[in-house]
Amino acid sequence: MEPVRLPDSNLESIEASVRKLMEQTAEQARQLDSLSAPPDPSPFAAFGMPSLPGMPGSPALVPPEPRPILELEGEEYEDELDALSDWVDGFLIRTYGAEVTTAAPWCKQWQEHDDVVAWLHALWMAYQQHKDPEAGPSGMFVWHRDFLTHCLAYVRAPGGPLSACQTDPDRDAHRLLPGPTSSTRSTRAASADKPEPGEPDQAAP
After folding, report:
1. Which of 39, 102, 117, 201 has its CA 20 to 30 A from that of 26?
2. Is 101 exposed, middle or buried (0-12, 13-18, 19+ CB in 10 A)?
3. Is 166 helix (H, G, I), strand (E, B) or coil?
């Protein structure tokens, strides 16, 4: 059998129909892809604008990394100390504050003892971590064993930072004991940096 030959005009019509069918198929595929994609819950998506923090569909905000309280300054330090005081006075001492004696001194002005503030703040941060459900059922036991016991043993030790403060529940007392002075090496280096009497100060312009 000889092949059937169609006129050129018919071939052009068939090619146009095939191209049209291919374009329609591609458009339908694009529509299916858009329908299967999860919708953007942001009300600004239609305008090409990103979602605002905290709104559905927006990236989760990462909380700031906790910092030791003695590294904070100014208002940031005061705010953190206020929050720590609420926890210490409202929970820690009410729950675990044994009777004040010479063997377990305390100070109502503990906020003025920097080392006590640092210890209690670290204890508070550990408490927040271990009471979280992710710490598991034994989280609070670990906090009692590894953090609470050691912190209170240091802070309220007979020869600890509060030993010159309240040792009698009926007699308030507060006194800051002097700490160690600078080492001999540091003192010698600081003296070497000072100009001799009568010599011009090299740091002056």
Report:
1. 39
2. middle
3. strand
Paired tokens of 42? 């942001």
Q: How far is CA 54 from CA 40, 45, 88, 176, in A?
A: 15, 15, 32, 46
Tens of pLDDT, residue by residue over 18-60, are 777 788 888 887 877 777 666 555 555 555 555 555 555 555 5
Alpha carbon 23 to its chain's center: 54
- Kindly list the distances between the CA atom of residue 33 and the CA atoms of 27, 28, 148, in Å, as whole numbers in the listed order: 10, 9, 57
Amino acid letter for position 38:
P
Q: Which residues contact 160 (CB under 8 A, 6 or more apart)?
A: 105, 154
Cα separation, 199 vs 147, in Å, equals: 54
Q: What is the pTM of this model?
A: 0.59
